[in-house]
Amino acid sequence: MAMRLTARPTAEGAGGTSARVATRSYRWWTPYVFMAPYLALFVTFVLAPIGYGLWISLHEWDINLPAKPFVGLDNYRELLDTGSVDGPRFWAAMRATGIFTALSLPFLLVVSLFVALLMNGRFRGRNLYRAVYFAPYVLGVAVVGLLWRFLLDGNIGMVNHYLGVLGLPDDIQWTTDTPAAWWGLVGVTVWWTLGFNAVIYLAGLQDIPAELYEAARVDGAGAWHRFAHVTLPGLRPVFLFVVNATLLASANMFGQSYLITAGAPADETKTAIFLIAETGLRRFEMGTASAMSFVLALALMATSAVVFRVFRDRQEDR
């Protein structure tokens, strides 16, 4: 007598299937659980301050007064009005920011690349060499500012002293006259932040395949041609990051100007961040300071967009 065997799901099999179905049905929230801590911090410390700052910029906001009347876009209009009190001061500070950025950016890009190329070589003591160049970057801006404030002093500073020893002019007023004040601020900034860019470049150099250099040598390419046709193209993504980060950092310069020159002479070295801090924290005009901050932020966003567009166009041309 033939017997028909029918497979019946066991209790264990049915339970396992149910567990898998339940796991799949609740799997949609897993990414949000991992993202929740970051999103909470991002909203609390980034989005909320931005929104609050925008709200303040639409008011005549004096922290010492209880009344903070809504003025709409008047704070922004005053910045664009050349006949107002804050307008000329703000654009003079923006000009100072542009001067400092234009002077410091080439040094921070080119000199740091040269240092990174030396760091990437094989020689005894290269770890010490890397540490020496990166060491200033770990110092705080207060330490750097106060240190160089005395070194650059026109009367008792060590810089003028050694210039005199070398037979060079030793009466340069690095902290009170322009253009010496600009070159002093640029020199201090390059000395302080050079190591960071050099380390980023070094990481990019070590990521370039050695086979490309070997192939270039086989083809008879010299050191300059290897640098131009292997190193620079290989560093293109790193170079984009370094340019953008250095541009933003230079445009946000504050501590060096505040501690070394105090904006002298006649506020010529007072940068936009310096003026914003002074307007909001000394004059207590938080509405105007917030409007200045957003105008500066828009300018930096536009500049960053131009940088990305230029690099993208060059990449497409290749």
Task: Map the helices and strands.
Elements: H1 11-25, H2 30-57, H3 74-80, H4 86-119, H5 126-134, H6 141-151, H7 158-165, H8 180-206, H9 210-218, H10 223-234, H11 236-251, H12 255-261, H13 272-281, H14 286-317
Helix pairs in contact: 2-14, 4-8, 4-11, 4-13, 6-12, 8-11, 8-12, 11-14, 13-14
Annotation keywords:
318 residues, mainly alpha, MetI-like fold, 14 helices, 0% strand, globular, disordered N terminus
Outline of the structure:
With 318 residues, the protein is mostly helical. The chain has helices at residues 11-25, 30-57, 74-80, 86-119, 126-134, 141-151, 158-165, 180-206, 210-218, 223-234, 236-251, 255-261, 272-281, 286-317. The longest helix is centred in the first third of the chain and has 34 residues, at 86-119.
What report would you give on this structure?
With 318 residues, the protein is an all-alpha fold. The protein has a domain at 97-274: MetI-like fold (Orthogonal Bundle). It has helices at residues 11-25, 30-57, 74-80, 86-119, 126-134, 141-151, 158-165, 180-206, 210-218, 223-234, 236-251, 255-261, 272-281, 286-317. Helix 2 (30-57) packs across helix 14, helix 4 runs antiparallel to helix 11 (236-251) and helix 8 (180-206) runs antiparallel to helix 12. The protein is globular. Residues 1-7 have low confidence and may be disordered.
